[in-house]
Amino acid sequence: MKKLIVSLMLASSLAAADEKQDYCVSVEKLASTVMTNRQAGVSLSAMMELADTELIKSIVLGAYDTGRYGTDEYKERAITKYKNYWATICYKEMSK
Question: For residues 12 and 52, is the Cβ–Cβ distance under 8 A?
Fold first, then answer.
């Protein structure tokens, strides 16, 4: 949970990032942390209490649209897929 709080605080400062690359790396890390917590069984309500921007709320809600897996292999796959999904969205938006 401590890692989640630090990551959500990091996400709150995303708007201050000077470079597009840094911003998208931060989005990717946040998505990874959110999905990691999702796979660990952290409740949606606990995550939403910490979400202070619309972007963070979208990332949290999206993670809870994904099932919770029982094996480490499938959990890692879900985390990788989710963080790559959000990074791709970010980079596409930044390239416009």
Answer: yes
Q: What is the DSSP string of 23-59?
A: HHHHHHHHHHHHHHHHHHT--HHHHHHH--SHHHHHH
Phi, psi of 70 (to 5 degrees): -95, -20
* Dihedral sign from CA coordinates of 62, 55, 32, 5: negative
- C-beta of residue 33 within 8 angstroms of C-beta of residue 83: no
Q: What is the pLDDT of residues 58-82, one digit of tens each?
A: 999 999 999 999 999 999 999 999 9
CA 26/CA 7 separation, integer angstroms: 9
Q: CA-CA distance, 81 to 31, in Å (whole number)?
A: 10
Computed on alpha carbons and rounded to an integer, the radius of gyration of the chain in Å comes to 13
Cα-to-chain-centroid distance, residue 29: 6
